[in-house]
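Q: How would the structure tokens look for this protein?
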Amino acid sequence: MKKSVNFLVSLAILLLPGAVNAQDTTVLTLEDAIKIALSENASVRVADKEIERAQYAKKGTYASLFPQVNGTGTFQRTIKKQVMYMDGMSGGSMFASIFEPIITALEQNGIHVDMSTLTGGGDQEEGKSSNEGISVGRWNTFNGGISAAMPLVNAQLWESLKVSRQSVELAVEQARSSRLDAVTQVKQAFFNVLLAKEAFDVYKDVYENAMENLTQVQRKFDVQKVSELELTRAKSNVASAIPNVYNAESSIMLALWQLKAIMGVDLEMDIDVAGKLEDYAQTMFYDIHENDDINLDRNTTMRQLAIQADQLASAVKIQKYAYLPTLSLSFSYSMNAMTNDFKFSEYKWTPYSYLGLSLNIPIFSGGKRHADLKAAQIQSESLDITRTNTERQLRIAIRSYLNTMETNMKSYASSQEAVELARKAYDVSQKSYNVGKSTLTDLHDAELVLTQARLGSSQAIFNFVNAKASLEQILGNDFTAEEK
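A: Here is the predicted structure in token form.
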């Protein structure tokens, strides 16, 4: 009999608070956890990268306003030269003698003429076609140059620059949304840890009370003042209290892991949270109806939808501007050389350049521009419907959170009174049991009522602060770019 009691005592030692919290533990306040999450949370870091990407995309769009300069270089090897034919001549030698000054001039300017093609055809009559031709060109052609072009008048391009700016604004707002979400998740995970610790404290007290009762019953049993049934009930109460303590301890570990995951820190890091749920009870008492005039000006979802609406309005303008002419400026400068060898030092390079304006007037595209315009307008109208419905859903959510806060504020007030009464009832039952005026069952029932009242009080605070955190996220009150 004593061995079983000693075993239960050893379990009590294992369930001391020191068994839950390691010695080298980093204790974090709610503010500390939020600060860490805003710098280490994966979603926040990805959102920051998205801002950076959008800024580079914006710079790429603005680059379209500047001249686009390209350098070119080509080499061409002739496989078979081009042949030129001329009619109205007879006599190969006479043909060659007549064109000899021209051929000489062509040779001097780097254009080779194959003289062998001028022979033959002397028996042709005047005015008849000749079957022989003149091969022109050289075997190697080198070309190198630079070209530039830039838009002068392009309404579509100008409007697209506005869309790029809006894309950066959208990325910034999405990053703000990620921060708001991270803050809310950290708060709720933090409160989960506090609730788990409250439950652990309650169940540990139940276990310790059961152990104390068992010790007293064991002493009375040893002197034959209580029956074996009473001792068995005491042992049963201790045994039934042990799983609750273990489950509560496991809940603390799981809640801490979740908090570490949201914060973005190493899961092996040993942390704990500071404070108790009771510390947040003072924030529960205020006039809920003061928030009847709340608005959604800072709500991140509505802000994103507003930016998207501006983008779609710009997209409609872009499609309309597709009907307008565009004007662009172009410039090109190149150097050419034609040779039959690879003696680069002897090459004669000839320049070629031009400067021009290009006017493009849209006339007919098979109805594509009209279809694109209608598609953009329909998309804008769909977004308007989405904005209206989203605002309606957000207002419903706000009212739901306010009602939850109000309900739990009242529940907490009543639960505090219930805890006091249950504690008094338990103390009376314990004294009555010690003097033999009540049974162990009566004492256990009183303790059960006290346990439920304590858990109900903690649950009311937890529900309130959870709803409050969600409400603050909707209202956008936790984080803004200015506060960062």
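The radius of gyration is 44 Å.

The beta strands are 26-28, 68-77, 82-84, 134-136, 140-153, 271-273, 326-339, 350-360.

Upvote if useful.
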